[in-house]
Please model this.
Amino acid sequence: MRAKSAPLLSPLLFVLLLLALGCQAMTGAVCQAAPLKRSGSVKAPVTIRQLASPDLSPPARQSPRTPQPALPDRLHGLIRRVALPAGDRRLALTFDLCERSVHVTGYDAALVKALRQGNARATFFAGGKWMRSHPEATQSLMADERFELGNHSWTHANMAVMGGQKRVDQVLWTSAQAELLREELDARRVRAGKQPTTSQPTGPQPLTLFRLPYGRGGAEAVAAINGLGLAVVQWDVLGEGGGGSVAARARAIAEAVRPGSIVLLHANQVPKDTAAVVKALLPLLRQRGYATATVSELLAAGAPETVDDGYFSIPGDNRIYDDRFEDQGTGGLAIPGRGERAQGWPGRALAFETPTVGPGLSGGEFGTKDFGRVRTQGRRGAVSPDPPRLCRCLPAFKRKSQRVAPLAR
Ligand SMILES: [Zn+2]
Model:
């Protein structure tokens, strides 16, 4: 696929960005990012609450009680898409729900509504801390038979630089949190006198899918996660950005997918108008003969196609995240307080979407705003210039832009 040129930020988007980051400067403040105003778009406000200090507390249960079935051999490795039998034109829309230790990221209810209205099936990769911060939203997803939940680590850890028990905890704590919420949901159904059905069974449903935060992780990390019983699922289509109107971005996704594709999107942060894009995308997919499925349904129907290393669009395009969150992969202080020394990559607590579909970087993960220039193979994506106004009020942004060396193909 030919790399698309990265469009510069529109003036409106840039102003919104500055406003959002200004909010971030107020530790502990609630930052309400205004939705983009586009005709026909779904209003999907996203609230990101910056915490006064990183929340590193474990869940109430630190390991699931339900035994995790061993992962079948055929599902080992880092899965980017699924080769389906001829004539099967299903694909998987996947939505990450990322939350680091330093913030509470919110939930895009308009997006979920758009999926439900379009009767679309989808997989949500939820962070464990996100599930704890958003129990009702998590249970709403759990209760909808069209959706499945996957594991996105406890605090959005970079699994390429985190190992040992910390990495295991990131997985198990998240699975345990899901189990707790599932138990609550089941108990509520029992109290309401609801009987289990085929589409809404009760009882333990261990998470069996994992998505690497930032897409970071190679054979060693993937083997460790596979050993815990979870298949590692990435994507072959970066569903975010692309620039232009909602309609243009939806069209770009529809043109990029093929049967068995796994599309990466987010359900809680940037871009703010994912709901509108999805609403425009679903009829385009139907016109092209596609149907939506969960990732598990794809995996049951076809043969997973794997790669050796996780990446967004080009191997190595996500290595920039390795030194930004220290070994925790979760950030230290979001914004250094007075007299405090910056840790890891503080201050860059909000993600900014690098506007590409196809080759390029995605900042949609969890929240870092990628100011400055990022160079990837075959393409120089100018995300945005360093924002001088911001630098005067937010010292953490004075750090120099980080460059990524071009990769040898
Ligand atoms: Zn994420």
Notes: Residues 231 and 304 are 10 Å apart (CA to CA).
